[in-house]
């Protein structure tokens, strides 16, 4: 059985150095700076909800899982050099996890721009889609 490397969205957007949590509003600032607010019709609330349900804002979370529960994985999106990959983002998985966020942001945008948008993430479909999400931004960007 092939093991597939699954990475949470937060891992795609933040450099991986050590296990740690990122503040919700700090993550919102990063996402906004990288023009993800409104990208393909998805708000920062959508991105924050997804980051929470995928990793609980743990910026170093990388999962290995064979059940297909996470939709950003090395089988489809990046090349991990351990298993066959479609490499849709045309990137090495290590580049996506590196401090240079250009590959990570580019891949996340490619995923959302494709068929299904954020529905490519099972966790987003189950916990965020069609739900009121405005509370995710409460207290961020005020003043």
From TrEMBL:
UniProt-listed InterPro entries: Glyco_hydro_22, Glyco_hydro_22_lys, Lysozyme-like_dom_sf
Range of residues in the leader sequence: 1-19
UniProt-recorded Gene Ontology molecular function terms: lysozyme activity
SMART domains referenced in this protein's UniProt entry, alphabetically: LYZ1
PROSITE patterns reported in the protein's UniProt record: GLYCOSYL_HYDROL_F22_2 (PS51348)
Keywords in alphabetical order: Disulfide bond, Signal
Protein family: Belongs to the glycosyl hydrolase 22 family.
Designated name of the protein: Lysozyme like 6
